[in-house]
Amino acid sequence: xxxxxxxxxxxxCDRATDGPWIxxxxxxxxxxxSNFIKTAGNDIELIGATEDDQDFIAxxxxxxxxxxxxxxxxxxxLKDVVN
Length: 83
Known about the structure:
With 83 residues, this protein is mainly alpha-helical. It is built from two helices and two strands; from the N terminus they run αββα.
């Protein structure tokens, strides 16, 4: 992955509503209402998503920044080894 692609992913993530995002599934996480993703802003309701899709989307808000930071960390280690 080149730096440009990584920076584009980071920018999209930075523009998204602040986290954490938490997936709430009816009868799993609460007893009434619809399935939704709780955010720091407005909640997100999805149409046509499976519960696994919703969990994936909600967790991506936390997972992607962590993965980006890990890529930067590993790239820095590689630069130290190469130099």
